[in-house]
Design goal:
Length: 119
């Protein structure tokens, strides 16, 4: 009976060693799966980043012409406005100068309304 007990104990110890090996293998498997998942996720993120960069570059390229066109339109409008202002200046220059000179030269002296005469 003692030999049967020691054999049972030996069997249990071997089973425990086998279970420890299985647990160790499971841990290694889990660690490897986590590493693989992390590597795969990094790869997918990099691919997505490249895709979005290409998409942005295409968008930027397609709208670059629009910016140049808008700049040209704005330049033309500015030139038209400048020409209008120059024309108005040329038309009204003499009248404005005459009004300024009249105000400066033709002064009519009068007493200020707040100044009272002393009697």
């Amino acid at each position: 009976m003692a030999s049967q007990q020691s054999q049972s104990i030996q069997t249990l110890l071997e089973a425990e060693k086998e279970a420890a090996k299985v647990v160790q293998q499971a841990r290694q498997y889990r660690v490897q799966k986590l590493k693989d998942a992390r590597t795969q996720a990094t790869k997918e993120i990099e691919e997505y980043r490249k895709f979005k960069e290409e998409e942005f570059n295409a968008f930027e390229a397609s709208h670059a012409g629009t910016t140049q066109t808008a700049q040209q339109v704005t330049d033309k409008e500015t030139e038209v406005k400048r020409a209008e202002i120059a024309e108005q200046y040329k038309d009204h220059k003499d009248a404005v100068v005459k009004k300024l000179l009249d105000r400066v030269i033709l002064v009519t002296p009068e007493l200020h309304r707040n100044l009272k005469k002393r009697d």
